[in-house]
TrEMBL record:
InterPro entries: Acyl_CoA_acyltransferase, Bact_Acetyltransf, GNAT_dom. This is GNAT family N-acetyltransferase. PANTHER family: AMINOALKYLPHOSPHONATE N-ACETYLTRANSFERASE-RELATED-RELATED. Keywords: Acyltransferase, Transferase. It holds the Pfam family Acetyltransf_1. The keyword Transmembrane helix does not apply. The keyword Secreted does not apply. Residues 8-147 form the N-acetyltransferase domain. SUPFAM superfamilies: Acyl-CoA N-acyltransferases (Nat).
């Protein structure tokens, strides 16, 4: 792992940062679309944190933590974990996950959840290695039009 990797909550993003995020999105999902305004809006949203991994200042990985209060407690959801393909295998995803877990602890979140496709076996092993456990649950997504 590169000694120059630094993981932090993004407080601002340069044009170079946004370009790096735009390059990461297709590596996360073939249907993901980049929207500069949407990404920038995350910086000011109280319930959303964009956690970035930088190698010599350049964003090479990211994760998103959404935190929200519910009647049963403040919950968290981890989404959009991705590391640039050229940087994989260096422990960057683990650093991102550990940072998100640390933030969740600091905020006193009651739970921290994530979802992953079953085909992403290596990612699932990584999630389990940092303390995530599989749950007997059915993931549902509304299939109607929300726009």
């Amino acid at each position: 792992m590169s000694a120059d990797i630094r993981v932090q909550v993004a407080e601002s993003l340069t044009d170079e940062d946004l370009a790096a995020i735009e390059q990461l999105l297709p590596q996360l999902s073939s249907s993901a679309t980049f929207d500069r305004a949407r990404v920038l809006s995350m910086l000011d949203h109280d319930g959303t944190d964009l956690i970035v991994a930088r190698d010599d200042g350049r964003i090479v990985g990211m994760a998103t933590l959404a935190s929200f209060p519910l009647p049963t407690g403040v919950r968290g959801h981890l989404d959009d974990v991705v590391v640039d393909g050229e940087m994989r295998g260096r422990g960057i995803a683990r650093l991102l996950l550990e940072a998100v877990i640390g933030i969740a602890r600091e905020r006193g979140l009651r739970t921290l959840d994530l979802t992953s496709r079953p085909s992403r076996e290596s990612a699932i092993r990584l999630y389990e290695s940092v303390g995530f456990q599989r749950r007997d649950s059915v993931l549902m997504r509304y299939a109607g039009d929300l726009a």
